[in-house]
Amino acid sequence: MGRSYGSTSLSRPLAEEPISVLHVDDEPDFAETAADFFEQRQARIDITAVGSATEGLEYLSEADVDCIVSDYRMAGMDGLEFLEAVREEYPDLPYILLTGKGNEDVASAAISKGVTEYLQKKPGADQFSVLANRIENVVDQTRAERRLEESQRRFQTLLDNVPGIVYRGHNDRGWPMRFLSDDCVELTGYEPSALVDGDVSYGRDIIHEDDRDRVWEVVQDALSSHDPFRIEYRIRTADGTEKWVREQGQGVFEDGDVVALEGFITDVTARKQSQRQREFQSSLLEAKMEATIDGLLVIDEDRTVASYNDQFVEMWEVPDEVIETKSDEALLDWAVDNKLAEPEDFLTLVEDLYDHPDRTSRDEVRLTDGRVFDRYSAPVVGDDGTNYGRLWVFRDITERTEYERELERQEFLFSRVQEIASIGIWEYDPQSGELIWSDGIRRIHGVDDDYEPTLAEGIDFYHPDDRDEIEATVTRAIEECEGFNRELRIVRPDGDVRNVRTWGEVSTDEHGATEVIRGVFQDITDRKEREEQLQTYEYVFESALSALAIAGLDGELRSVNAAFCEMWGYEDCEDLLSQSVTDFWTEPEAAANVVDAIRETGRWEGGLQGVREDGTTFDTYCSASTVTDDDGDPIALMSSFVDVTERNRHEQKLAEEREKYATLVEQSHDGIAIIQDGAFVFVNSRLSDIVGYEESDLLGMPIIDLITPKSRELVQKRHEQRLDPGADDPPSQYTLTFETADGRERVGEVSAAVIQYEGAPAVLTSVRDVTERQQYEDELERVNEELEVLNRVVRHDIRNDMTVILGWAEMLGEHVDDDGKERLETILTGGKHVVELTEIARDYVETLTGDGAVDVKPVQLDPMLRNEIMLRREAYPDADIVVEEPIPDVGVQANEMLSSVFRNLLNNAVQHNDKDRPVVEVTIRERADEVEVTVADNGPGVPESQRETIFGKGEMGLDSGGTGIGLYLVHTLVKQYGGDVRVEDNDPEGAAFTVTLPRAG
């Protein structure tokens, strides 16, 4: 038996697997030209060239190849002799013979010696395109046959199935399940019972919301024609992970109606990727084409048939009158009317290729008679680059397609049996020491899918008490060719002990020696536990939280548990027995149909509306099945019920909330966007309004394109910092400038947060248009700056001038009579008041032009208040200003402008007093967290109607002794400190102003 050659991957499409080729030719120029062509245009084909058949045999003894391409005429051993030598060791290795000239004797001899293909050398690069096509076809055909043989060998050990979930369910949009295999947890994160009991809906909770309608439509289309269905779609697992799955199944029909769906769901996430079709550049060989198994057709640039071979006519069975028209359109019309199973797709590709003459194409064409053709097309390009038309190559691959389908079917069955029966297969080669486990065995042992143990490691999984027995059993199998069947225990890596049954059979070579041991491994833990489960059944039935009921095949209740009685509002469960199961529903007729369905199919799941003893109704989800005896004959009906009234209400509410959320996003006054990889993947209409672009134009646009140059660096820095898990979080809000579609600038206040969007990191951003507000703030800042300058300049000039006036007025006191002194005193008082007003104006302006962030700190009350009282006494010698002693040594939350508060309150108490001698009393009261300072006077008081407005800007006038600005300043400063100011009546007369300040810690 010859050594194996080449390699195949059952999980990889044939057309994508690399091909290794040994090229034997004693013409170096031809070999070098061929190597250059394949390197530049056929990345799939890896070619190794040698100069003689002897070198070729040496290379084959050291390396595996998928195909041999050999020249016929060579020094020493020619191509036919080389073929004969190859066939002795490698009877199935594809072999393509090249000759300089056609020769029927050579072709006949080559065919008799087992050549795979016979090809004549032609001048020009076109021959290499044909050669590449031949290599791919013969290798793909051989691989398909080899895969089928391998699958059939494995299938003799155990039937095949696909890894994933085996299910049976209902044809309903929620896809309620009757049965799910244990791999449900691995694929979806949910226990099978959660879906079977209805706690989780496969259709609503697991299938991706964007794929649900498509899945429903594909399945319904297949069911309507009683065909199997196959579809790939996305799911969301229990932890929110998005996966791609491939589902294939079919309907279960009774009397033409769909009573159930059954099939398999497999994880294809890792394999889900776009598959690129390989382009082939081909050119016309010559007008006369050699005999080949391929049908060849050449169409020139005018859509006229330039050339074809007999094989093309025979394959397509084209009538003479059609082919003789030389019209490509006539050929297409005839094929559409008489041969093509999918004419629209055929014509679409043809027209697309004629519209793009530089393209190549390869696909499969199905005929109405069941045959399948491999179709390859490439432009015919001359050495000068001129395009002369298009070459079409057709090969009948019906047999290969059938191989691949049979291979797929057997692999499907193999995986399915492993999954359903909790079994797997193993194979051990004593010569190489290689131990092979199937996925089913890995699942039983609780190890990763890529775990590959040695024999010793496999034996180490067995329980210490069983390890000697399995070692002896394996030894006897190897040495004495003795099969075995044992029930033993294994210990999983997590410590879980499982009961297993292992079968083994020995395959021997021609000398009777053990060649390989293969067998089946089954987890029988469940069977071992079944007796214990049966013993606890009655307890579980009675104490179950779900409502359970058992009825006879005639539909009369035999037993119910307490939860059933409670759900239907019965106090005594005995009252329910002997009643029909159809008596507890709003639609007894529908319930009767359910009973019939259970009798016919053995299972039923779905929703029904129950009626309690008091007449109220509720929604339930029912899972029912037949109870069978040891012979498998039905003896009773058993059902479980879950009250899903609240769940249905919750789902309705959830749907409404989702709709509200979508409306909220679209109606938001802020622009909302999701940015991924620096570009917009979602925008709402408000963002479109702000920047002046259509929503469709924004999708896919980099955000940087909307940002003015001065803001781009900030945006890029914040974006990178936000997505970097090791960096500090940037500010969640900041301001930047956008450039609109018409070139204007808009200022936006941006908030951003990192989210997951469609399985990848993204940034959720809201944009508020603050252009007008920014313009207002800029203008306000300018006015404040001007006001501060004006205040500083005017106050400085007034104080200087008043200093001069007051100085001269004091000097005039010695030069005026008594009447003049009284008037001079009035001048001095007024002048001092003007100076005092400049101080108030300074404090007022500083308060107005501050940045809003007041610097508040602990301030000692005693020295500040005492100093202001002393200054007011000096300023108003005719007033009595009395303070309650002692002033407490306490700190308050304020700043250095607190003195302005007390100065203005004291000034107000004196200046607005109508008594000849004003009396002002200052009292201080301490509390746990605040301090109150009251300034009371004996003046006219403040009318109650003015107490709400006295501290406002509206009271700043010159209609009284003061300006009113002082009290507004008092109110403003105290509020900045976190305190309060109020005015009340003084007893027996006057007004009392009370300032409350937070106490310093």
Q: Could you characterize what this model shows?
A:
The N and C termini lie far apart (about 95 Å). Helix 26 packs parallel to helix 29 (about 965-975) and helix 28 (about 900-910) runs antiparallel to helix 29 (about 965-975). The longest helix is centred in the C-terminal third of the chain and has 41 residues, at about 770-810. The chain has seven domains: about 20-155, Rossmann fold; about 160-275, Beta-Lactamase (2-Layer Sandwich); about 290-395, PAS domain (Beta-Lactamase); about 420-545, Beta-Lactamase (2-Layer Sandwich); about 550-640, PAS domain (Beta-Lactamase, 2-Layer Sandwich); about 650-765, Beta-Lactamase; about 855-1000, Heat Shock Protein 90 (2-Layer Sandwich). Strand 26 (about 670-675) and strand 27 (about 680-685) form a beta hairpin. The strands form eight sheets. It has a five-stranded parallel beta sheet, with helices on both faces. Strands 7-6-10-9-8 form a five-stranded antiparallel beta sheet. A five-stranded antiparallel beta sheet has the order 12-11-15-14-13, sandwiched between helices. The chain has about 1000 residues and is α+β, with helices and mostly antiparallel strands. The protein is about 40% helix and about 25% strand. The chain contains 29 helices and 37 strands. The radius of gyration is 47 Å and the shape is elongated.
